[in-house]
Amino acid sequence: MTRAASSAAPVQPGESGLTGAAVNSTPGRGRFDRFPFNRLPFIGRQRWHLLTRRDKFILSLMVGLPLVIDVALIWGSAIVDFLWSFTDWQGNGAMAGGGVGHRLVGLTNYMQLFDGTYPFFWSAVLHNLFWLAFLMFIATPIGILMAVILDGQIKGMAFYRTVFYLPVVLSLALIGIIWQLQYAPDWGRGFINGVLHTVGYADPNLFGLHVNFIKDIPLVGQWFRDVSRTDWVGGDLAIIPTVIAASWRHVGYICILYLAGLKSFDPALREAAAIDGANSRQTFFQVVFPVMKPINIVIVVITAIEAFRAFDLVYIINYGRSPMELLSTLITNNAISESTRIGFGSAIAVILTLISLIPIVGFLTVTMREEKE
Amino acid sequence: MDGQVTRREVLKKGLIGAAGLTVLPTVIAACSSSATPSPTTTTPTVGPVATPVTGPTPTPGLSGKVTVGSNLSDAVPKTALAGAMAVFQALNPGVTVSINTVDHTTFQNQISSYLAATPEDVITWFSGFRMRAFVDQGLFTAIDDVWASGLAALYTDAYKTACTANDGKLYMVPFDTYAWTVYYVPSLWQAKGYSIPKTLDDLKTLAAKMQTDGLVPIGLGDKDGWPAMGHFDIIDLRENGYQFHVDLMAGKEKWTDPKVVDVFTVWKGLLPYYQTGAAGRLWQDAAAGLVAKTTGMMLQPQVVQTFQAAGAAALADLDFFPWPNHGTQYDAEAALDAPIDGYMLTAKSPNLTADETNAKALLAFLGQGSTQVIYAGGDTSLIATANNADTSKYTPLQKKQAEIIASAKKLTQFLDRDTNPGFSGPNGMQGFLIDFLSNPNQDLPTFLAKIQKFWDSLGS
Q1: Cα(B298)–Cα(B278) distance, rounded to whole angstroms?
Q2: What's the pLDDT score for residue B63?
Q3: For the whole model, what pTM was predicted?
Q4: Which chain A residue's Cα is nearest to B286?
Q5: Contacts of B21 in chain A (CB under 8 A)
Q6: Does the domain made of B182-337+440-457 have the CATH classification 3.40.190.10?
Q7: pLDDT, position A21
Q8: Which of A119, A198, A204, B58 has the fewest CB atoms lying closer than 10 Å?
Q9: Options 3.40.1390.10, 3.40.50.2000, 3.40.190.10, 3.90.226.10; which CATH number does B43-178+338-407 get?
Q10: Interface test with A, best of B22, B414, B416, B437 (most A CBs within 10 A)
Q11: C-beta separation of A16 from B11 below 8 A
């Protein structure tokens, strides 16, 4: 088992494709990792070089160019954003002095967020956390389940795969429009309410059960009070139908990622498990899932990133207007909207970055520690 | 292994990069907004609307080009503007006019970065606080010379005031206006025996009757966030008068004032008659309820556009009345929201130096009643602003709008045009009002204290 698991692990250190290719381009020197360069002979004053000048040039170009772009566009912006968060700059006029409303305000922006002066901040934080929990514990497991089912020998596999992957190919803008048509409150426009109206579902009398108490459940009850007239993406709970729409896409995304992992899974392991008498559930949880650990980690990190950068769908549905605000839409609506509170919006962006770092750094630490051991 | 980049380091870097991705949406958005959002450039062609023009005369020797940034993305006003521009083009064959039309709400949301980056020479914009705020930031060019060259005589003082910024200079050419009134379908009302309510109590009685008749009494679609603001405006104007309303918008009065509590209390009394699910519905869909005769009435401007799209028969069966009296001393003001849309000369347009003469000629042209009538003929939901506009071709509804606006002693722009844009946005007043509509039974003083606290934090 242990031996098999390690053989299934990805590329081993020392077999890295990059170094191999670089060395092979210099003929007659053999493989880098076998070269005894700690006992490298010195001939006169001339030192042996592993890389030609051309190699060095290409390598530095390949590393340097992305680095410059990365620093300029990501780190540069992030640092500027961080600095702005201590000002009340309104986005016009020179950065250093002279700009309209460009004053250092210290931590005021952050104070206004945390003490509830800006009441939309905490609800946005809650919405983002809900979004994360929903994707992590509902959408992602469904995606994995789909992948496992699709991995089996089913007739018409290609068709099912296309069906599940289709939402991922669609742009989120299109997904937003599709789901708005599902959720619109009026019968003529909204599919869900239209169907409820057509089948005459006016009271929550599901299957003859009298379940009117549903109407009195706090919060959720509002969806059942005036069935077939429910304002799905308008009420206090609008975030729930919206995250369901987002999950529609997320499930397909996770499904394809996991399916790719399953395809590279060593069938011998599965056979071994079958010989040992494991049923399919045991095979998955005790053999497949542990071996798929690298993919699992990627999926968890991707889900976390997806949850915190969620933006498009909400913005398309109602511009992130309360009560559907997310941190990302608050940033947009403050920093690059008509309100031009760039300093304030930057403070929210800084907080969003810090929050996003928590799950990512956490998983990185765990992964690296285990890898070391 | 020494000297090699380990897999771990690569992974570490990659994930830090991924963390950076969370900032990326901001960056991407910032980049895309500095460019003009999803532009659809159209060069107007001379269409059937090119009727003989008597007002403006061609300025001899004009040549070059002028660019126009337009938020008139709906089909009806877009075509109407193209018609007016075609006339300008015909009068000044040497000048090429290109219109860049951007989705209405996108235009509004990105106005600030658009004006600060590379805007078109002339743009559509709104009067009031929203004009002054951007003038204060140096993003518009004063056009007193355009006003001096013949426009001044065409406008009342109310318009001049609305186009004047804090520095006392004129920055806008008013183009069109429209009134916030209550629309209804007369044939439905006749069939049911309803009559136009004169007082707030009449309105409530009527609404209750509509409810028993199986109608939605008061239609509302607040998906865009702003329609509910008009409801607040009119109730505040009737309850507390023009001066209080304007002072409240400017921050001179407090939201925690008992007078504001009173406004929300009155509004709460009307909410049982409102269409449910307002927050997720477009106002156009709410207006479709009027067309379908399932909704009794609706406080909203420009409903004509929806009826126009529904056909001539529907359009002929539409009327409106001003919001009823509340039995206060302020009824006599007959105040209402009548927002003025106009055209302004930007300051940061890259072609401004080259295009300035053409742009000013275009602005002067747009300020003429004869031009505005071409536009108002295409979009009959609004009316011209210049007093030399030939109103003989107005539809009956346009004539009525003009009368109601003329008879109002006080006119306001609109909640989000009369106050700080940072205050009125999607995560500001729009959000607060949706919260109120969803939870009208919450403690009003607490609710209003939140609003006041937010206003104070803006530091304006």
Answers
A1: 12
A2: 85
A3: 0.79
A4: A186
A5: 74, 305, 309
A6: yes
A7: 41
A8: A198
A9: 3.40.190.10
A10: B22
A11: no
